[in-house]
Amino acid sequence: MITLVKNYVDENKIQKKINIRKIISMKEVIDKPLDEIIIKIKNIDDIVKINKLSSEEGKTKVIIDVEVDKKRMSFQLNEKRKIDHKMLNLIRNEENIDVL
């Protein structure tokens, strides 16, 4: 991943100069641990679908929001979990579940 900075060279703003600000490998971005995720569940029966969450202790704070009949319940897991981007994508692919 490359971060670029564009600057104009002349006063007429005709010519641009592009500088590379930062270069990060994609592996570094993908392997970076998540600090917090919020899982929104739209149906109480879909709680079973989040069993894919790792029970390993990690650095990610997990909050689960359940909305049923215009009532909203929010739960936070006692222990932080180890959640990587691969696991996050598995949860995102489930129906009626949103991940923030």
Task: Give helix % range.
Answer: 10-25%
Can you count the helices?
Answer: 2
Taking all Cα atoms into account, the compactness measure Rg is 20 Å
Biggest sheet strand order reads 5-4-3-6
The computed structural class is mainly beta
**Main sheet summary:** 4 strands, mixed
| Low-confidence parts | none
- What is the N-to-C succession of helices and strands? EEHEEEHE
| Mean pLDDT rating | 84
- Mass-distribution shape: elongated
How many E-type strands? Answer: 6
Number of domains: 2
Please give a structural write-up.
By secondary structure, the chain is mainly beta. It has two domains: 1-30, no CATH class; 33-100, no CATH class. The chain has helices spanning 26-31, 85-92; strands at 2-8, 16-23, 36-41, 57-68, 71-76, 97-99. The protein is elongated, with a radius of gyration of 20 Å. The two termini are 22 Å apart. The mean pLDDT is 84.
Identify the notable features of this structure and list them briefly.
100 residues, 2 domains, 6 strands, four-stranded mixed β-sheet, two-stranded antiparallel ribbon, 14% helix, mainly beta, 2 helices
Task: Briefly say what this structure is.
With 100 residues, the protein is mostly beta strands.
Walk me through the topology.
Layout: E1 2-8, E2 16-23, H1 26-31, E3 36-41, E4 57-68, E5 71-76, H2 85-92, E6 97-99
Parallel strand pairs: 3-4
Antiparallel strand pairs: 1-2, 3-6, 4-5
